[in-house]
């Protein structure tokens, strides 16, 4: 599939490599070293895809994206970012970028991402007959561009139900485990919508990206609203990600069917973009070294749990004499040991619990729905697991380390986020100042941690 691509990167090597990748896939490629040169090219001709680095000299990929979109609202934009620059990638997605790529970029990744953008352009082009219906086209554009699920689902269901002259509709989505769940409804209360999902479930396994399935409704239920329902596929790149079940009184006419299919395809694009955005935001909350969560995510998680009002426990953990490991084996081995500690921690907690690298050799564990008594058992399990583990065995070093752990619980010890963390930190420091390799529970009389020892 050919198409015109404008590649913007201030590094000549990157421009050469990426343009070679794309030309090998039969794309027409123009290159620019900065935003000014790119805008000059955009003013002279049309491109299908703009591929830009997030960081550009004298400007930024975000500024270029905004200006380019004002010149051509249908231009598909791809941004390239480094792993430590995912925040601008999040902003780019929210500003209208179609996708993002994290360096280093392979030929396959680049070609597939550009192909997705070309497919999106083609999707709009092949529906030119619908452009005369301005309200429908604008509805599709709004749906495809919406990255707020609470707004997306009602808007999409209302539009599809309207195009089908339907009294009720429900969005059914496939989970990562392959099951189907009810994601929202229009004109239906929960129970009728759930009934519609149950009726549709046997047919959902056979649904393809192009086929509409007709369902005859059982007497004594939804058939009082309409005699039948249609299952309309919601797909992205030929993959079925969901279905809209609409109640209909008769057969759909050709314009109605075409309009509903157009809206469902735009919904599929929006759901795919939501998934990509969630992946980008997830990267922004990960520690680069251990791939545990970072302190930004801890902040959100603590707010969520406090708002929920149920008990939870925070463990503040620090490795004992970690500096000696760095001094004896080097900082690279020390970093590998920190990664190995993360693996040990994962083996000691549940999937719902939150593991955070707080900084250096400090870790925080948020035990969801666990009070201080249960938290003490988990903390002791972690302490023993670290004490018993032989670290750096693959490197032939066979290092043993221990950890001091402080514990504070909500609402038992504190009701505020900062106070809970501070009390857990104080309890951990008490352990380090005494015997080390110990678990201490918070209490109000513990002295604060001296600044020099942080």
Question: Keyphrases for this structure?
Answer:
454 residues, alpha/beta, Rossmann fold, Beta-Lactamase, Alpha-Beta Plaits, 3 domains, 5-stranded parallel beta sheet, globular
Computed structural class: alpha/beta
For the record, the CATH architecture of the largest domain stands as: 2-Layer Sandwich
The level of helicity is 40-55%
Number of domains: 3
What's the CATH class of the largest domain, please?
Alpha Beta
- What would CATH call the homologous superfamily of the largest domain? Reverse transcriptase/Diguanylate cyclase domain
Radius of gyration: 27 Å
Low-confidence stretches: none
Give the number of helices: 14
Mean pLDDT: 87
Shape: globular
Q: For the report, how would you describe the main beta sheet?
A: 5 strands, parallel
- End-to-end gap: 57 Å
Strand tally is 17
Proportion of residues in β-strands: 15-25%
